[in-house]
Amino acid sequence: MLDQATIDSLRHADVAPAGHLIDGKRDAVGVGDPIEVISPIDGSHLTSLADGDAALVDHAVTVARAAFDDGRWSKMPPAGRKAVLHRWADLVQANAAELAVLGVRDNGTEIGMAFRAEPGSAAATLRYYAEVCDKIYGEIAPTPDGILGMIHKEPVGVVGAIIPWNFPLMIGAWKLGPALACGNSVVIKPPESAALSLIRMCELAHEAGLPPGVLNVVTGRGETVGEAMSLSMGIDVLVFTGSGAVGRRIMANAAASNLKRTYLELGGKSANIVFADSPDMDAAVAGAVSAIFRNSGQVCVAGSRLLVEASIHDEFVAAVAAGAAKLKIGDPLTVGNDVGAVHSQGQLDKNLAALARAGEEGGRIEGGGARLHADSGGFYMEPAVVSGVAPTHDLFRNEVFGPVLAVTSFADEAEALRLSNATDYGLAGGVWTSDLGRAHRMIGGMKTGVINVNGYGAVDVTAPLGGVKQSGNGHDKSLHAVDKYIDLKTAWIQL
Length: 495
Ligand code: NAD
Description:
seven-stranded mixed sheet; 15 helices
């Protein structure tokens, strides 16, 4: 963990205008109007970020393709790629304080969480995939005599990656680790409102020995750079984490261009389900509070719906509201605060509007929901707990991506399961019970990509993260993520 003195030595450091990193060269000017980067901590102007356009994306893709074709990375011996990725992880770790504080100034996440989840988890992810480089084997098919059927695993070529603002280093590493381990070249677009630490992390890749041209960063707006990437004729695979609306557009653009494979990691409305036989009610209360309110609810797998068995409902909801009220919300760079800033004025407005609508629809505000510290110029919000949320309500069905918890009561296991599956999303969920049979029935019945039992949210890089239904396709993390970045080629040899 970082101490306050280290944080304070970094929190006011000058931030130079930032931008593209193509073929190993920086360009902080770009094309068109630069993006003014506002810190959610106090609303101050942090720096500017270069925008791009379709021509610039084409240039980055051409550079990436040339690097792929000449084999400077794609044909480097796997042990060589592994050494570079390990050195990169070392540099991310060595620069963790700088990366974490820069990221927090950009996106508002509380520093303790940012330190662990951003450089900490990014370094661990890069190490995990460094070890994959020399462990990807082809296969021999079970053919009749006289035939050798070989299945080669080849890198796809040029991978495009589009990243959201909530955890840019962690999610960036989830894409970059396996894509580079397999020998691909990459064009990555950081989120325009939280690009700075990811650009720096990509610079460190070059310091670690990644050849120029293999990893290219194109900064800019979604409607300029992101749109051009999804329409690119030169990107073979596009991996995306972000909202469902943009994910839909990316898929449509892929179909309208070169039919690039697209893998989408989208939003959620995950149900955290507490049965009356939960083994530890205090842990269940603490779990429910952190499941939704850590990082101001700006977590894709947030337990944003709390389903509580009717017999314990009132007592449990009162305890969750009390737990939420105890959270210290404030400057994300002050050690001891539990939750930092909401990411932007726009996100804060969206949160407050969702809460107002929940009240109009008949939800009971059990506590919280006010804007905080407005005089700081930053964007802060009290965690809000809303009970009596029905499956027809907006708050039940739609992701807010803010600190607003929807609570619904259920009578029995069958109703809990029905409610948990009654949204278009299927990303994560939680079950608190001491009945092993019930836990397994819920795991089997819940339509989600991740289920936590008697805990919430502690999943590491060894297990896949991905959604079902409208939460996406494909998986980040684990060895399964590697499949997105390879093509299978069959060689059928008559002996
Ligand atoms: P967003 O969809 O607004 O933006 C994500 C990225 O897409 C940004 O880089 C943005 O510039 C880019 N983009 C915007 N318009 C584009 C376009 N027309 N074409 C191509 N790219 C475009 O999402 P966000 O607000 O940054 O992130 C929040 C969302 O991400 C939430 O819905 C959250 O649940 C989701 N998320 C999902 C996961 C997961 O693993 N499933 C993880 C984190 C966040």
